[in-house]
Amino acid sequence: MHPLKTASGLGLLALAGLAACGGGSDATSVTDSATLPQLTAATAGTLNACAALLTGFSNANTTLTAATDVAAGALTVGGVAVPAHCQVTGKMYSRTGTNGSYAIGFEMRLPLAWNGRFFYQGNGGLDGSVATAVGATGGGPLTHALLQGFAVISSDAGHSGAQTALFGFDPQARLDYGYQAAQKLTPMAKSLIAAAYGRGPDRSYFGGCSNGGRHTLVATARLAQEYDGFLAGAPGYNLPKAAIAQIWGAQQWAQAYTAGSTVTASTGAVVPDLSTAFTAAERSLVGRRILAKCDGLDLVADGIVSDTAACQKAFKVADDVPTCSGTRDGSCLTAQQKDILTAVFAGAKTTSGAAIYNSFPYDPGIAGSNWATWKFVNSQALDPLAVGTVFGTPPAYMATPLTADIDAQVARISATDTTYTESGLSFMTPPNPAELSTLKKRGAKVMVYHGVSDPVFSFDDSVTWYRNLAAANGGDARNFARLYGVPGMNHCSGGPATDQFDMLSALVKWVEQGQTPESVIATARGTGNAGGVNTELPSDWAANRSRPLCAYPQVAKYKGSGSIEDAANFSCQ
Predict the structure, then answer these.
(1) Read out DSSP for 90-146?
(2) Is 210 an active-site residue?
(3) Where are the domains of the chain?
(4) Does the annotation mark 491 as catalytic?
């Protein structure tokens, strides 16, 4: 599934700062990892019956609408046939609310040959549709939870269809979307698994990318007792702030765009074509200049900037990109363009200069089409909807995002009133992202992956999260949490990147076998790739180029010999 998409075509936009927060005096470091529990491995089971669940399963506030046998191969994902399973659909907490009837719609897929595990699939964007419950992970997934034998649940997070543009006006729908749907679905899903297999899951996992990644990091705080492993991709855990930053960025680019030029967004809205302020040729130029300055920092010139931190020190827009002395022709940037680019990458600010959201790292993935779509189009068509009607109090449509008062929007996402008693920041974000002592003490684990060239949720924000988590745990959180940057990757996938990987298997091995994932092998999706071809790969890359994705702060460096297409010739340092 593509993150940040909804059934109605609507979506959401989907380094700094080392600050100790949370953790408490009993926090432990990696040196005392032996004191953390080692969770036992799940054991397999067999589905008892499918159709009987429709009438035989009972759970408070829950109605099942179907229980259907799905034959092996009837469903395929990435060209791979899914084994036989039972598809159960239903809804929870049906009610009448603002703008009509509401319920938390869901589907569960229960494999006949069960591996004893449960996977909660966090979906993208503003939710609003029940995506197929396969538990896909990674940019172009090599595998997925259902294929591996997990029982998987997917939901619409408490609203559906046309409500996607309106549910922010309903106080309860906001809370369900933010965190309560997951809280309500989790115990029901475990009960349904028990009814289907004669016992509940031995191990439970929670994962998703984009808003699904946000759901996952929220669950690390709110559902720490319920899940043993958390896999968060591009986690927008500061999503309301990131959405405002998107609008702020659009306002900056609007200063240099070609007046009168328009483009049609995925919603059908016609908006100013802000890409005229920073064209594909100009983005490609900047990408090449970043490579020229930073490609060799990982000891080989291979079209990948692995040492992101070193690159931020080495590359400067003002010095390393030619300044136009005449007409813009793709070989230079004007002084105004340079100023805007520098400001956008430094992070959105209020009129007083206070930071709204994090900075973004320079990376060759700036040339990616996904980067441009989110920065120039979705920032006008999608983010204003989320900020205006879902995160802001009181909800109100944002008719003119390019002239919207950014300071006022910042205040609205923190506001409450007698109707909307939780602010957007409260219901959308983890209560304390660095306070994970509950899951840590249980032996649970967290893995986060993030594209370094994500244009919506900044990789720098995930670095900040990890640094704060480490600070809250005696300076080191490696015994229960890891962060992996994916150089070149845009939002959840795409860009000049090795964006296909299986982190779910690595997480299971860490949780249940104690195998620490120092790195995860990622491959490029070149010609013939079953998971879908990435058309933005450089022509001189091997179709199956591989790289180790290293646990932060380590980076992949060339060993000095062997093919640069093979991960075996790189090490994490």
Answers:
(1) EEEEEEEETTEEEEEEEEEEEESEE-SEEEEE---TT--S---S--B-SSS-S-BHH
(2) yes
(3) 45-198, 241-414
(4) yes
